[in-house]
Amino acid sequence: MNDVKQLKMMTLNDVLNQIEDGMTLGIGTGSTIELLVPKIAQLVEEKNYDIKGVCTSNKTAFLAKELNIEIVGVNDVEKIDLAIDGADEVDPNLNLIKGGGGALFREKVIDEMADRFVVIADENKVVNYLGETFKLPVEVDKFNWYQVARKIETIEGVIVQRRVTEDVPVTTDNGNYILDCALPKGIDPYEMHEFLIHLTGVLETGYFLDITDEAIIGTQQGVKKMYRQ
Q1: What is the number of helices (H) and of strands (E) in the chain?
Q2: Known binding-site positions for substrate
Q3: What pTM value is reported for the model?
Q4: Which positions are annotated as active-site residues?
Q5: What is the Cα 44 distance to its own chain's centre?
């Protein structure tokens, strides 16, 4: 059961049991969600559920449509009943770092809209503090990304890199760049988010604070559930 994929698979049934007929679902992005979407499609088909999905990325929307899940735009729904997504880090207070897949802005829009937001992840994502194992993604405008990076690095111990794949800067679905910020221990996520979000050129940060209602974690010992206090 050491396989990370197996740990992720363990979390799916618990979240599938929360999906009900008539729901509008927020469907996230990433490797765990790619395992979940076919299961949602199967549920819709077997139980003849009337489900609408709002997706956090073009990639997820494409996959869901291929499997005959009805996908609608975020501006076409009044509310989202349940949002489901993975995370790059989960701290003891259910605060998250997200954005490893580059969809952090759309993820935050959808997760904040939802009546309930549930995270599914494997135990490797559980950390003592945010930034312990994963860099904080920040989505920024292309026009002044370098100036933004330098401003962020005025905070002691923070190291910023523009995200690049095969020597090409990564561009989000919104046409922006991502800055990955290595954080030293002791940075207050609330203060850091406030600092970053007010920099001209920053669209959104990968801090997801006070949004998560439940985390379903696949561990070597079985499924562990964490709830917001």
Answers
A1: 7, 16
A2: 29-32, 85-88, 98-101, 125
A3: 0.95
A4: 107
A5: 23
Query: What is the chain's pLDDT, residue by residue, as a tens digit (229 residues)?
Result: 458 888 888 889 999 999 999 999 999 999 999 999 999 999 999 999 999 999 999 999 999 999 999 999 999 999 999 999 999 999 999 999 999 999 999 999 999 999 999 999 999 999 999 999 999 999 999 999 999 999 999 999 999 999 999 999 999 999 999 999 999 999 999 999 999 999 999 999 999 999 999 999 999 999 999 998 7
Strand, helix or coil at 109?
helix
- Element at 38 (helix H, strand E): helix 31-47
Q: How far is C-alpha 80 from the geometric centre of its chain's CA atoms?
A: 16
Residue 117 burial (CB count, 10 A): 26
Strand pairing category for 177-182 and 136-140? antiparallel
CB 175 within 8 A of CB 188: no
CB 94 within 8 A of CB 118: no
